[in-house]
Design brief:
CATH topology: TIM Barrel
Order of helices and strands: HEHEHEHEHEHEHEHEH
Mean pLDDT: 95
Helix content: 40-55%
CATH superfamily: Alanine racemase
Radius of gyration: 17 Å
Number of strands: 8
Number of helices: 9
Largest sheet: 8 strands, parallel
Length: 230
Amino acid sequence: MTVAENVARVRARMEAASKRAGRDLGKVRLVAVSKTVDVERIRQALEAGVDSLGENYIQEAQKKIEALKHRVSWHFIGHLQSNKAKMAARFFDWVHSVDSLKLAEDLSRAGSLQNRILPVLLQVNLGQEETKFGAQEEEVFQLLERMAPLPGISVRGLMAMPPFSENPEDSRPYFRALRVLAEKVSRRQITGILMEELSMGMSNDFEVAIEEGATLVRVGTAVFGSRPPK
């Protein structure tokens, strides 16, 4: 299948999932994950209507951003090292993977230096996996209260990656837990903290994520096809 056909198929699946959940498809954004994807295939996705791209590595993304002249919304979705915060704030429109106060502070300084406010999401490690980054659930409220007054960034919601499973239904409890956590944060009414976005769901489970309230789904393989082996 072509990239355009893949995009159409993903959109149809997103629409069906939204209808099952009684949600408006307009409330869910497709972030096409273009990690390791060449610029030509990315252009095909843009021509098919994709308007948001997700990348995991700063240097790889920089070349694509410069080639495509920033004609799309760029989302950083991988683990971000603090020493790359300045570059992330320069090249990206969103950072989904803020996982510590130090990183939030570094992005805050970088955003302020560039006279911008960078939308960010707090990554939560709901599966408590040692191999994944993210704040522990019990740390979330304290972290958000300390992030709230930081200039140069705006906390817009939460992000999570559940433990991988071949069965999409295995992800549902984690997606539901993230939504419930966001609702708890909203009730806390922390000044400067918004819970507008839930970044959750990938190629194998984005439909379940939408049913549980995702507003940003990070879909790579279903859009661009299988990646070449490393």
